[in-house]
Amino acid sequence: MPAAPKPRRLDARSPFVFDARELGRRPGAMREFDRDLPAADLLGGEKAATLDGLYSAEGADLRLTLRVESVVEGILATGRVSGSLVGECVRCLDPVEVDLDAEFQELFYYDLEDLTAEEAEEAQRVVEDLIDVGPLVHDAVMLELPLQPLCEEDCPGLCAQCGARLADDPDHGHETVDPRWAALSSLAQGGLPGGPESAESGQQRGNGG
Ligand SMILES: [Zn+2]
Ligand SMILES: [Zn+2]
């Protein structure tokens, strides 16, 4: 098997990077962490690009608890992200607070030598006694968040014509004009139905038949 590429160095200051040095590579050793999670880092910026910008980092309150256990092959990380995020109702665009409780578990390998090439490609690695749970947290959260947040299950949304919020005004409506009346009203404004074009097409029909 060709030598695996050297793993990318991890930034120990990242909120998603955890130090497993204390475990001393002794199988059975265990440590727990509890951290506030900066939603902007989680969402990859101010808005979650992966969710069409439906969730905002502003107003988010997230916590990450993580248990790291030393096992023979590496570090087993078991985590949970809980708290709330503020999304946007897909119908009326009002802010919606969405509770979140997402879990993940992953084994970080010391080395990938005993894995098949395919397994190695998917595997997470321990890099200089550090592990980066960022991608796991991100995936777990994205799986858990509703793709179509709604302020209410039956949110009536916005008026298609003027954008008014229908929940505030249940009787909201516009005078709809019957298409036949619309034709008449265009007549009244000076247009003739058909006009020269329709006369022409009538002539063509005559020639052809
Ligand atoms: Zn709504
Ligand atoms: Zn309207």
Structure, described:
It is a single chain. The chain starts with 16 loop residues before the first strand and ends with a helix. The chain has helices at residues 39-43, 117-122, 134-144, 179-188, 196-208, and strands at residues 17-19, 30-37, 55-70, 74-88, 95-109, 124-125, 130-132. The protein is built from five helices and seven strands; from the N terminus they run ββαβββαββααα. The longest helix has 13 residues, at 196-208. The chain is of the alpha+beta class and 209 residues long. The chain has two domains: 17-144, no CATH class; 177-208, no CATH class. The strands form two sheets. Strands 2-3-4-5-6 form a five-stranded mixed beta sheet. The protein has a two-stranded antiparallel ribbon with strand order 1-7. The radius of gyration is 30 Å and the shape is elongated. It binds zinc ion (2 copies).
Give me the Rg, rounded.
30 Å
Class by alpha and beta content: alpha+beta
Q: Segments where pLDDT lies below 50 for 5+ residues? A: 46-50, 195-209
> What's the total count of β strands?
7
The helix count comes to: 5
> Major sheet: order of its strands?
2-3-4-5-6
Write down the overall mean pLDDT.
82
Tertiary shape: elongated
The bound ligands are: zinc ion
Strand content: 25-35%
Number of domains: 2
Q: Strand-and-helix sequence, N→C?
A: EEHEEEHEEHHH
- Give a short account of the largest sheet: 5 strands, mixed
Indicate the percent of residues in helices: 10-25%
